Amino acid sequence: xxxxxxxxxxxxxxxxxxxxxxxxxxxxxPFHPDESTQTYMSQDFTKLFxxxxxxxxxxxxxxxxxxLLRELDAPLTKYLIGLGRTLSxxxxxxxxxxxxxxxxxxxxxxxxxxxxxLIAARVSICILxxxxxxxxxxxxxxxxxxxxxxxxxxxxxxxALVLLHARRAMAExxxxxxxxxxxWSLLDGHKHPWLTGLAMAVAxxxxxxxxxxxPIGALxxxxxxxxxxxxxxxxxxxxxxxxxxxxxxxxxxxxxxWKNPIQAGQASWNARKELSRLQMADLNRLAPHQALSTPxxxxxxxxxxxxxxxxxxxxxxxYLGETRQAEEEYLSVPGHALARGLLPGGIxxxxxxxxxxxxxxxxxxxxxxxxxQLTLLLLAFxxxxxxxxxAIPIPWQRYTIPIIPFLCILTAYGVIPFLPxxxxxxxxxx
Length: 430
Prior knowledge:
21 helices, mainly alpha, 66% helix
């Protein structure tokens, strides 16, 4: 323990400061109606232990609104909020948010959580941020050294999108945790395939868009060292561990699929397609200039969301009058909109691209283990970016969250040529 503290004291100091800042600021984050939806659905946490089959998909009937939400949304966030709500003694929310109703009508219907309930729900998700920073630090440190690891963690911890979206009672904080957990698990996936399967299950049950990382996880567990004995046998064992753990966790968290898994999967797929259609219809009606029809437009929007535009508090302007004061107070806090804009964003983008190039240049020169780890990181980055560009034609800022850990690690990696090359900084961690 003493050796651990000696080696990682600087990161632990940074982590402690960030954690205190995160928890202090949860009350000043502007409200988003989707927080009501996740908090309302957190009642499923109790049902998971008392009557899980009541959540199973049943044929021959129009699904209730709650069942439709189960078909649409990954479940992990609502369970974490339910756990936090239970531990803090907060009641469940009376009803879900109605986007077609006014703020006052939703408040009268019991869809606006109390301050205490909202804070409890947010803390349930925000508490994952220190773990996301830790996984980022450990991953980047393994790829180079502790100096790069600390820089990657600082970049993630101060990212304006993370500070806003990952501290709300929504899926983004859980998603960030799942992606960083998976990135760390990829490093030794061939040694601990069950752990990579668990991490992949956590990421997928946080947000379905991380399914793009599933083949990268599979590659990590079957990519064995050349000297491995009985290699084919070990590949099969590793692949089975990865797949079985993923499926077990998925089924455990999704009673929706317990009775009619195939039909439930089809219903979920159709529900997601219909939601995307409705979102695009709303976008074309309310903000047609934001509709992204070409790869070039999507790429530009992605870069703008990641580096240039200020934090986006809402996707549509239904309730701007009610949230404007909270947004102004949030932006008045130092650090909440750090490194946004053409100059700071351009510098970070340049370092990130430099990190990608540097990693590619280093690949042939590194040891087989490190070559494997860098390759997996780059493949995962390209896969997650591709799925966002291809499958999500909506320029919503929070949809970029799963890419941010990659950017932070690659940006820190791109700073390597500018770091003093002392022996201490060259030292590996973990």
